[in-house]
Design goal:
single chain; alpha+beta; Thymidylate Synthase, Chain A; six-stranded mixed sheet; two-stranded antiparallel ribbon; 11 helices; 22% strand; globular; nucleotide biosynthesis; Thymidylate synthase; transferase; Thymidate_synth/dCMP_Mease; methyltransferase
């Protein structure tokens, strides 16, 4: 995963100090590309432990067309908790402690962090126990799963994932194997507009490759997940289409390191990458749409310890 470490160093050396939507501040650069040969191992970051189970359950959530974090909470996956929680605490029904800028405040104020955790835990419990509440506050709007599986049109919906699978199987040389999550008509209704916005598949020599365009890339927390998620997606689509895997090409727009992640990035740059793990998928007798988190695993993953950092919401 030297490609990822090279990205980190490049942004530290060449990035520009910029403000951002979250108020955290970033070191940012525009336009960067990495390439990963999936024949050489599964690109799961080894310079810090990365939670593959969370990556898997999130991707399967996308592939099933789900947009409600209730499913993820039940899977013990907190990736999207903050965006759902933000909808709840900003609503007229919420009457608890002031949660303004909870993400930043929780990293600077230990007492507030305790209150925030209590409120978050109560929110998640209510989401799981109260379906009506989950429908109202835990649904993130027309985010990735909705766009991938049921893009709305005047005449119904479009299942982009099934369409691209059919296209790869029946017309592998096409240059139209594209899936987009960026829907201008619905972007304002999403809890978070899609960061990984568009991807294109490519078939050559019996191998399936994919290029992703990511408009916004949180290098320390988000990008390692994005790399592994799209590598996994390529493996799954390749299995569905009876192809081998080729390359994952990751093209970044605004590639940034948050100001409160700089020390963590520098710590990671001191670590030596280890051997990449191997992906295992138990797909016998199943479609990729039927897979569960337990069907997917990695073998030989021996990373350096986890490095904690706050998420910017």
């Amino acid at each position: 995963m030297k490609q990822y470490l090279e990205l980190c160093q490049y942004v530290l050396d060449n990035g520009t100090q910029k403000g951002d939507r979250t108020g955290t501040g970033t070191i940012s650069t525009f336009g960067y590309q990495m390439r990963f040969d999936l024949q050489k191992g599964f690109p799961l970051l080894t310079t810090k432990k990365t939670a593959f189970r969370l990556i898997t359950s999130e991707l399967l959530w996308f592939l099933k067309g789900d947009t409600n974090v209730r499913t993820l909470i039940q899977e013990r996956n907190p990736i999207w908790d903050e965006w759902a929680f933000e909808q709840w605490v900003n609503s007229e029904e919420y009457t608890g402690p002031d949660m303004t800028d909870f993400g930043l405040r929780a990293t600077k104020d230990d007492e507030f962090a305790k209150v925030y955790k209590q409120e978050m835990d109560a929110f998640k419990q209510r989401v799981v126990e109260d379906q009506a509440f989950a429908n109202k506050y835990a649904d993130l709007g027309p985010v990735y799963g909705k766009q991938w599986r049921s893009w709305a049109t005047e005449n119904g919906t479009i299942d982009q994932i099934k369409n691209v699978i059919d296209s790869i199987k029946n017309n592998p040389n096409s240059r139209r194997h594209i899936v987009t999550a960026w829907n201008p008509a619905e972007v304002d209704d999403m809890a978070l507009p899609p960061c990984h916005a568009l991807f294109q598949f490519y078939v050559a020599d019996g191998k399936l490759s994919c290029q992703l365009y990511q408009r916004s890339a949180d290098i320390f927390l988000g990008v390692p997940f994005n790399i592994a998620s799209y590598a996994l997606l390529i493996h799954l689509i390749a299995l569905e289409c009876e192809l081998e895997v080729g390359e994952f090409i990751h093209t970044l727009g605004d590639a940034h390191i948050y100001s409160n992640h700089v020390e963590q990035v520098k710590e990671q740059l001191q670590r030596e990458p280890k051997t990449l793990p191997t992906l295992r998928v138990n797909i016998e007798g199943k479609s990729i749409f039927d897979l569960e988190t337990k069907d997917i695993s990695v073998e030989g993953y021996d990373p350096h310890p986890r490095i904690k950092a706050p998420i910017a919401v």
